[in-house]
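Possible regression after last week's pipeline update?

I re-ran a chain I had predicted before the update to compare outputs. Posting the input and the new output here so someone can diff against the archived version. Not blocking, just want to make sure nothing changed silently.
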Amino acid sequence: MSYASGKPFLFKPLMLVWYLDELIKHCPESRFLWIDRAPLQVALSLLHMREEMTGSQTNWLSLKPSDYNSLKQCTPYEQVAGQIARIHSALEHAWEKYGDRHIVRVSYEDFCTAPQAAVDKFLALNPGHGTAAKQIRECPPEFKIHKRSIDHTSSLKTLEYALEKAFEHTSETNS
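New output (post-update):
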């Protein structure tokens, strides 16, 4: 896309998480901004998005990991927990492999508090490269930090347990 436009650009294609190795292999100038958010908040946000966008927490939304067919048989909490654990695992793998040569990792809170600092750090990853990225426009000074909650303590505990199990499963499969 950069080649076609003749300009560098920054965009948020979450689906690329499954293809980072191939992208870096074929486009070694590629750089990535990982906004790292607490898994529980991601899960609550994803459940909220499911409800808002599809009318139900049971309807799948967003990325489908390779074991999607088995995950879709699970409860919504187990589904989002598995989905988040697999995405996080893929990003951790990329971070371990490429580190700050290709990836800027910033916490969600830091990004929301100072987005320009994260973008500046991102742009500094590739100084002097043929079509060196220049600041196209300034970022907003900050974004609102969204903290989701859940109404029932038992539901929160169920979701936390699902996340714990999904991350354990993912780390076991990657060992």
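Follow-up from reviewer: compared with the archived run. The helical segments are 2-5, 20-26, 39-54, 68-71, 76-98, 108-113, 115-124, 153-174. Marking as no regression found.
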